C-alpha cells in the first residue's frame, strides 16, 4: 500500500488588541493631513479595538496531525502582536511608526514582519487586520504589484 499523500492545510488564529493612533504624514503639511485623513488626524488621536487573524499554511505532520502547534503559534502572536501593540499609542510607543503612518495597512505589514522573524520559514500565509467591522486589511507579504 502506498504511503498517504502529503496534505496541505491552512490554520488561522485570532487575537484582539486595543491601541490608539493619529493618521498623520510628516511628508504633508498640517492642512494636507487634515484634508487627507479628516477626523482621524485629530491631534489627540483616536483608538480602535483591532482584531487580527493570522493564517499559516503547511503540510499536516503525519505524526502530530498539525501544521503547527497552536501553543507555539499563540506564543509567537503574543510576542509579535500583543506585546508591542496592545494598549499602546502606536505613533509614540512603537518605534516602527515613528516614520511610518500608522494606517491599518502598515499595521498589517508590521505584524507580518514581526511574525516572519518568529515562525518557521515559509509558513506564514496571511495577516488580516480588522480596524473596525467595516475596515479590513489583508496582507500576504507582497511587496509590489507586478506589471503585466
Count of DSSP helices?
4
The proportion of strand residues reads 25-35%
Uncertain spans, ≥5 residues at pLDDT below 50?
Answer: none
SSE class: alpha+beta
Helix and strand string, N-terminal first?
A: EHEHEHHEE
C-alpha termini separation = 46 Å
Q: Using the alpha-carbon principal axes, give the shape.
A: elongated
What labels describe this entry?
148 residues, alpha+beta, 5-stranded mixed beta sheet, elongated
Explain this structure.
The chain has 148 residues and is an alpha+beta fold. α2 crosses α4. The longest helix is centred in the middle third of the chain and has 16 residues. The chain is elongated, with a radius of gyration of 18 Å. The mean pLDDT is 94.
Question: Topology of this protein?
Answer:
Elements: E1 8-21, H1 30-37, E2 46-59, H2 70-85, E3 88-89, H3 90-93, H4 104-118, E4 124-130, E5 136-139
Parallel strand pairs: 1-3
Antiparallel strand pairs: 1-2, 2-4, 4-5
Helix pairs in contact: 2-4
Amino acid at each position: 500500500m502506498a504511503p498517504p499523500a502529503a496534505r496541505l492545510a491552512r490554520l488561522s488564529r485570532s487575537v484582539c488588541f486595543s491601541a490608539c493612533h493619529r493618521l498623520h504624514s510628516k511628508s504633508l503639511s498640517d492642512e494636507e493631513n487634515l484634508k487627507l485623513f479628516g477626523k482621524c488626524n485629530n491631534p489627540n488621536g483616536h483608538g480602535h479595538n483591532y482584531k487580527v487573524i493570522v493564517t499559516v499554511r503547511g503540510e499536516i505532520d503525519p505524526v502530530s496531525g498539525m501544521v503547527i502547534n497552536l501553543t507555539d503559534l499563540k506564543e509567537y502572536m503574543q510576542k509579535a502582536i500583543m506585546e508591542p501593540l496592545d494598549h499602546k499609542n502606536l505613533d509614540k510607543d512603537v518605534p516602527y511608526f515613528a516614520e511610518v503612518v500608522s494606517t491599518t495597512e502598515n499595521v498589517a505589514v508590521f505584524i507580518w514582519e514581526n511574525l516572519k522573524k518568529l515562525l518557521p520559514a515559509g509558513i506564514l500565509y496571511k495577516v488580516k487586520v480588522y480596524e473596525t467591522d467595516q475596515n479590513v486589511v489583508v496582507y500576504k507579504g507582497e511587496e509590489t504589484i507586478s506589471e503585466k
